[in-house]
Fold this sequence. Notes:
Oligomer: heterodimer
Largest sheet of chain A: 7 strands, mixed
Structural class of chain B: mainly beta
Shape of chain A: globular
Number of helices of chain B: 0
Order of helices and strands of chain A: EEEEEEEEEEE
Distance between the termini of chain B: 42 Å
Shape of chain B: globular
Order of helices and strands of chain B: EEEEEEEEEEEE
Structural class of chain A: mainly beta
Helix content of chain B: under 10%
Radius of gyration of chain B: 14 Å
Largest interface: A-B, 29 and 29 residues
Strand content of chain A: over 45%
Radius of gyration of chain A: 13 Å
Distance between the termini of chain A: 36 Å
Amino acid sequence: DTTVKQNPRYKLARVGKPVNLICSQTMNHDTMYWYQKKPNQAPKLLLFYYDKILNREADTFEKFQSSRPNNSFCSLYIGSAGLEYSAMYLCASSSFLGGHYAEQFFGPGTRLTVL
Amino acid sequence: GDSVTQTEGLVTLTKGLPVMLNCTYQTTYSPFLFWYVQHLNEAPKLLLKSSTDNKRTEHQGFYATLHKSSSSFHLQKSSVQLSDSALYFCALSAATSSGQKLVFGQGTILKVYL
């Protein structure tokens, strides 16, 4: 099974409220990623976990948190949502063994709308 | 830093015609290039990938050739079908101290009509 699952598929949030998005995979992949995708823009990497090590991109360092309680699950947490957080959030996973050539397997995304 | 450019935001074609979606990249390292396709309401999926200079890679009727001399990895198909309507992303694998990450182009929407 090469499925990456994301919950919920659609999320409506109020400005200033927290948001928690969930991703899971059953491929025993060591690396899990979160991307933000806005219309007419490239998917932007927010952060990724290699095993238990969290790596956050410099320009989004303070805006997003994440946790990975076990190998299969990874969450994306926004402490206080702003209008600019409205976007599609894509989760992906891959195996470190693939190196630079590793395929990333994506979930269908969570569409977050902040009002 | 590493970057990927896709020049067309939207390509519309009649079924049966050939298509080429452009992708160019910038990197100071050895390039690993990918094409991902995302159909409506589905997850992006790998279409094809390459790291070998001047070698054609094919999958599901699509093909692409990595040309290091021109930093390009254009996606082509000789005869598009209605089912090819989707969003196509070109991506470059970039090394980090903790593993691999993908740098994406902004994507090209391909719409195929009867």
